[in-house]
Design a protein that fits this description.
The protein contains 12 helices and 12 strands. The protein is α+β, with helices and mostly antiparallel strands. The longest helix is centred in the last third of the chain and has 19 residues. 33% of the residues are buried.
Amino acid sequence: MPRPTTCGLTHAVLASARRFGAVTVNYARAASLLPDRGRVAGAVVEDRLTGRSVVVRARHVVNAAGVWAEEVAALDGRPAFRLRPSKGVHLVLRREVLGAEVALILPETEDGRVAFVVPWAGRALLGTTDDPYTGPLDGPVASRQEAAYLLRHARRYLRRVEPGDVVGVCAGLRPLMEGGGGRVADLSRRHAVVESPRGLVSIIGGKLTTYRQMAEETVDLLARRDGGGRPCRTATLPLVGSAGLAEAEQALASSGLAPEQQRHLLRGYGGASMEVLALAGADPTLLHPLVDGLPVVAAEVVYACEREQAVSLADVMFLRTRLSVLADDAGEAALERVSELMTAALGWSAAERRRQRERWEAAVDREREALADLA
């Protein structure tokens, strides 16, 4: 059972890679590439939290950096490809706007596309925009115009949608390859594997739904370079969390958790929900919800720190539990408890705890500016 959200799927893939011996790191940047006899043979990787660097040598170097792929390829000279990022914005609505457990397609937007409203994490997700983006690649945010655009089209089909029904907003970038017509909608959503003269392999473009095919083509290219090594096995490899579903469901049923919380954990972690439950063995309060009306429990914060490389309040509030886009108050009511749990897990000082809160507040202000004065 793959974890159904983008963030959850990403962490399931990372956990699966670690099971096969991969080393994964967070907040790292490729500062430069290492040459060896005219070939790319590694990279200098910078820890963006401490500023320290480490030299990583490798037989093959793959650039799978998404919207940053062109920047990474430029470390090896002029890239043979160009990316044109596209920004996609979603609004998070109260589930009641749907009136039932249904998903809707909203046809014929004013710019000739379709939009949608789907149930998501106890809320409803309204999306999406598809606009050219030329700003900083780190931390794109929605604009008021984009939020108003989505709300305007939703009202054509959901007459009850009001600004008060919008509880959150999120934005992301698509790494589209340059080509086709002049509009973003004309750009290819396909992917390509590009090899530089010095052997840097870049996997560019594509969509989340084709990530296994992209991985297979990349790994198969490396196998051919090695003289016909074993081809990629991703097609038959289950993700972490896909096993043990029956046992997890049984354990959740006897945990005392509300049915909504049980469904949330099973959908979010699959068989790995047993590990989340185990964290509450010595402290039953870890199974308490963090926000009234939402199924996220405190144990998920500890799990994020111990198993999913969360190192900041923003990591947990935006990217792991998603409380800052799901909760009416952006998760403010849960912040003290989350901060307390992360302090215990990561050993924060009082000063670091204050700094983390300030950075979270700045992120909330930046993200929610698009929701101000919605009519």
